[in-house]
From TrEMBL:
Pfam families: BTP. The chain crosses the membrane at residues 12-33, 39-59, 80-104, 110-131. InterPro entries: BTP_bacteria, PACE. Keywords: Membrane, Transmembrane, Transmembrane helix. The keyword Transmembrane applies. Residues 7-68, 74-136 form the Chlorhexidine efflux transporter domain. The lineage of its organism: Bacteria, Pseudomonadati, Pseudomonadota, Alphaproteobacteria, Rhodobacterales. This is PACE efflux transporter. It comes from the Bacteria.
Length: 147
């Protein structure tokens, strides 16, 4: 177990998450593309960069909209709108990228996007669970188990 200050913990999280995500999504994209002649690493890196930039831009805009409309609590509906807006925007960037890079149609690109979405849903859950055990939140107490 490693204790890190909050900012350093977030930086380690992003670096590890994105590094593993790039490696694993490269393998998944290679499998989905059915074309060994193209390397999927550049696409995986591009999708990672797009996701990080879009996350910053989208959340900045979403939080500004929340302030403008006086939303002070994220209800289930607000969270659904947030998740759908983020993923919807990401699809607008990634589907054309898949179409261009892999020379596939809209349906194939949407299937690739859906597979990536499911992958990241599972990956994020598992990664965060493991990360929180190795790098607990700064305010969490360490529980010592008796031998």
């Amino acid at each position: 177990m490693f204790r890190l200050p909050a900012t350093q913990r977030r930086l380690v999280y992003v670096a590890l998450f994105e590094s593993l995500a790039i490696v694993l999504s490269t393998l998944l994209l290679n499998l989905l593309s059915k074309d060994d002649s193209h390397s999927s690493l550049p696409v995986a890196v591009a999708v990672s960069v797009i996701a990080v930039v879009w996350n910053f831009v989208f959340n900045t805009g979403f939080e500004a909209a929340e302030r403008r409309f006086g939303i002070t609590h994220r209800s289930l509906l607000v969270r659904v709108v947030h998740a759908a807006g983020f993923e919807g925007g990401l699809v607008l960037f990634t589907v054309p990228l898949f179409m261009l890079w892999y020379q596939v149609g809209v349906i194939d690109a949407l299937v690739m996007e859906a597979a990536i979405l499911v992958f990241f849903l599972v990956f994020t859950f598992v990664f965060t669970l493991a990360f929180d055990r190795v790098f607990p939140l700064p305010h969490q107490q360490v529980q010592v188990q008796d031998a």
